[in-house]
Amino acid sequence: MAKHKDTCSNQERYIRKQKKDRRMINFWRVAGVIFLLGIWELAGRMGWLDTFIFSGPVKIVQCFCRMLRSQDLLRHTWITLKETLISFLLMIGIGTAFAMLLWRFERLAKICEPYFVVLNSLPKSALAPLLLVWLGANMRTIIVSGISIGVFGVILNLHTGFLKVDPEQIKLIETLGGGRRAVLSKVVLPSTLPILISVMKVNIGLSLVGVVIGEFFAASEGLGYLIIYGSQVFKLDMVVMSIALLCILTILFYQAIQLLEKSILNRFTL
Amino acid sequence: MGAFLDFSNVSFAYHTKAGETPALNNVSFQVEEGEFVSVVGPSGCGKSTILSLIAGLLVPEEGSISINGENTGIGYMLQKDHLFEWRSVYKNCILGLEIRKQKTEENLMRVENMLIQYGLMPFRNARPSELSGGLRQRAALIRTLALNPQMLLLDEPFSALDYQTRLAVGSDICEIIRNEHKTALMVTHDLSEAITLGSRILVLSKRPTRIIYDARIQFPEGLSALQKRNTKEFQDYFQTVWEVLNNGKA
């Protein structure tokens, strides 16, 4: 009995230590940001930094409140959010469809692979001026820019994932009388769902990057536009605030995918 | 009417860039309806190739394979159960029916009955990971039997199990196969398993494969697979097959 008590208290001690560690990590995460913001603000007020060029936390918050009151900020943020979500969904949809096509037609995959590898490594920002000329200064260009930045990576990663499916599982479907379509729908797609989720995790951020690049070139609204506009008229508060909003959007996107991951992958734990 | 399965003068080779690997060379054998045939042989001798050829997953380069009977469906059990974790036990069992678009009331009812009969009803909606090794094999067998095949091909179906489970599950699964009046061909590398579960044994040579021994196996009535291992007959069969395997000829 005494031994059992000991075990309990050891267990409690272990849990307490884990909780303490977590609190400590969270504390230093927040404290680090507050410290840096404090130094930044102080440096501006003491004249160590030129706030015209480097802005400052208080000025950024003031800019945020001003723009929020005029409702401009919500509009710009919503536009970027909308363009990112559309690009992301299209990127994943097109990428998955192409990966399925390459899996289905091995020869096509062999023919296309080097091209996809080249296109994947190409800096997509180099395409933005071309897209502007081809598609015009509108949302289409921005969305295509958002898609192009990650779609080739999605295709390559998913196709590789599809090829890694256990051949014995494929054989099982064949022994049950299934053809390629049954193999795809019953084994390949469900078993690569975890890979699809990790691809989504990476690419939600990339979509945002592509959209912002597109907005630099082709937009009259959106956070990317605010960054370019702000830098041109030396409203650095606006630039930094927009960047901070992009950070917040990235965190929200990531959290959303993580929620999706939790709800789906629970069914896959072996 | 001829034999249930006629595997006649079949030759098959695997082709790769490195060259040709002959797997079967003019192999012939027949299986009668209701027989449980064990196939043993050295590693890599093409035992699984025979099953793939019968199942139609591979096509013989020479010779022919014919199966007689009204319902000539073939069921295949692989080394691992390959139950999909993203499907419930029941959904795994009806996978073949889904694929062949045969989810008729009659077929679904047969699956339900097998789940009841073979003790899986309490786990109907469970995930496969919640089942023991033995129950997983039963679920895999029900998935195979759901299509009501007349012949079952078993490719070392118990090799992924630990020894103790394997002894119990092996005899359990064979009992079910006999209950359902199926003809079966089981590939195994375990001589004891081949002798205690089969009603006939085929011994294959090294590549290119030929059949070097073919004998019926008979034990006194009513013995379990485990009890058979303690009989004189078992010792004799084991000794004979062991010598055939070692000498490469009967």
What does the model show?
The complex is a heterodimer of chains A (270) and B (250). Chain A is an all-alpha fold. Chain A has helices spanning 2-45, 51-54, 57-69, 72-104, 106-121, 128-135, 139-148, 151-163, 167-175, 180-191, 193-218, 223-232, 236-265. Chain A has a single domain (80-269), classed as Orthogonal Bundle (MetI-like fold), CATH 1.10.3720.10. Chain A has 13 helices and no strands. In chain B, helix 5 packs parallel to helix 6 and helix 7 crosses helix 9. Chain B is built from nine helices and nine strands. Chain B is α/β, with parallel strands linked by helices. The interface between A and B is medium-sized, with 21 and 21 residues.
Q: What would the average pLDDT of chain A be, to the nearest integer?
A: 91
Measured between the Cα atoms of the first and last residue of chain A, the distance is: 36 Å
Number of domains of chain A: 1
Total strands of chain B: 9
Q: Under the CATH scheme, which architecture of chain A would be assigned?
A: Orthogonal Bundle
Unreliable stretches covering 5 or more consecutive residues of chain B:
none
Helix content of chain A: over 70%
CATH topology of chain A: MetI-like fold
Helix amount of chain B, in percent? 25-40%
What string gives the helices and strands of chain B in order?
EEEHEEHHHHEHEHEEHH
Name the biggest interface.
A-B, 21 and 21 residues
Cα shape of chain B: globular
Largest sheet of chain B: 6 strands, mixed
Tally of helical runs of chain B: 9
Q: Main β-sheet of chain A, in a few words?
A: none
Write a concise keyword list for the protein shown above:
heterodimer; A: mainly alpha; MetI-like fold; flat; B: 250 residues; alpha/beta; 6-stranded mixed sheet; 24% strand
